[in-house]
Description:
Elements: E1 6-7, H1 13-30, H2 39-47, E2 49-54, E3 59-61, E4 69-83, E5 89-95, E6 100-101, E7 115-128, H3 129-138, H4 140-165, H5 169-184, E8 186-188, E9 191-194, H6 200-207, H7 211-223, E10 227-229, E11 234-236, H8 239-243
Antiparallel strand pairs: 1-2, 2-7, 3-7, 4-5, 4-6, 4-7, 8-9, 9-11, 10-11
Helix pairs in contact: 3-4, 5-6, 6-7
Amino acid sequence: MMPAAVPLRTGNRAAADMMGSRSQLWYLEQLGLFDQLTDEQRLALIGTTRTIEAKRGTRVYLPGDLSDRVYLVKSGVIRIVRQTADRREVVLAYLRAGDIFGELALVDDAPRDHVAEATEDAVLAEIARDTLLDLITAMPQVGLQIAKLIGLRLRRLEARVEELLGGSAQARLAQTLLQLAGEHGISDADGVLIPLRLSQGELGRLVGVRRETVNSILQEWRERGVVEVDRRTIRLRLPDVLRQMI
């Protein structure tokens, strides 16, 4: 059984509540959604925002679950996965601190059609759908900012679909690794480290090819010194070589 997301527990309640409020306010402000709110409105929003922790492997929600919550990633990594008609899993996105997910609940109350899962221990801010809808009614500019976020997510998904449909397996894998490096990578003297737990099967689901194909491509790249791969991370030693493959 997958672990469930749970409310974040703390020690000294008064101190924790004060620190939690400041923390939630800071993270909410990073979205740029709440710049126009009054202090009273911000405090009211914080009062309805719950901080939860999701251990690695926790599924925050599943297909068929109610679309009644919106989430902001405070820390950790959340993976968004959708199942195709032939029951294959396709990874749509890896989300990190500052990203929002579940936001389509604001424009469509249909049940979820994808999985949101923590691939690293994560801390999330959870906001009720009705709370945000009330806020949008009172402050239309907040709705405009959310619409921009949804548009950005849709553009990213369109780009993912184009990657899955076009190009060779090698080109798609190169483009995906470069995208992950751009979003999550840590640059150093030896290249760019992608600090995500990515098995070859996971990479296959990202690119839309079989695990064996990913294994063959990575083996060739390792021999050429283009990448380094271990069980936890991938390092792009020669990212320019990968760019030439796209």
